[in-house]
Amino acid sequence: MQDALVRSLLRQDNVALVGLGARDSLRLEAGLCLYGCDIDDTTTPVEAALEWSIQKTRRTGGKRAGGFIGAEAVLAQLAGNASRRRVGLRPEGRAPVRGGATIYLDETSNTVIGQVTSGGYGPSLTAPVAMGYVDLATSRPGTRLFADVRGVRHPTLVAPLPFVAHRYRRG
Fold it and tell me: Which pTM was predicted?
């Protein structure tokens, strides 16, 4: 059944197979996390910029405040106690910054302030894009940081997410 469906779809002129690279570039442009790269079981929703996933009734002052796994830590972070934040990164130039790259405060110091979790080329933007975690103090859009790409520090700007505006609505 699946084979027949795929073959039927591929007979259409405007349909082609794509791989994980296409998924990755589109999710990066949309600012969406991939479990195991951008989030894992050590990441809180606040650090990952996913506060929208915490119901208002579960937040401090809500009718049913707390009551979820990690509530104490998450509610404290919502009050401003997070130490890091997932941010968008727009590398200057054409070189993509890949996951695992170290992020430095400036071009020469050894002050590590974060790490890239996902990065690649954004086809809609015709430019490289990345996401990563940086110290909260350096997470403001427009902040210039430096990412290590094969031993060379490349300037990159903290950018708001998503890189490309979503064009879908919740049902």
Answer: 0.87
User: Quick count: other Cβ atoms within 10 Å of Cβ 77?
Assistant: 20
**Which of 137, 124, 131, 118 has the alpha carbon at shortest distance from 90?**
131
Residues 159, 92: contact at Cβ < 8 Å? no
The number of beta carbons lying within 10 Å of the beta carbon of residue 169 is: 5
Instruction: Give tens-digit pLDDT for 60-107.
Output: 999 998 999 999 999 999 998 899 999 999 999 999 999 999 999 999
Distance CA(69)–CA(126), nearest Å, equals: 41
Place of tokens 């050590």: 42
Distances (CA, A) of 59 to 41, 49, 68, 77, 170: 20, 15, 10, 11, 22
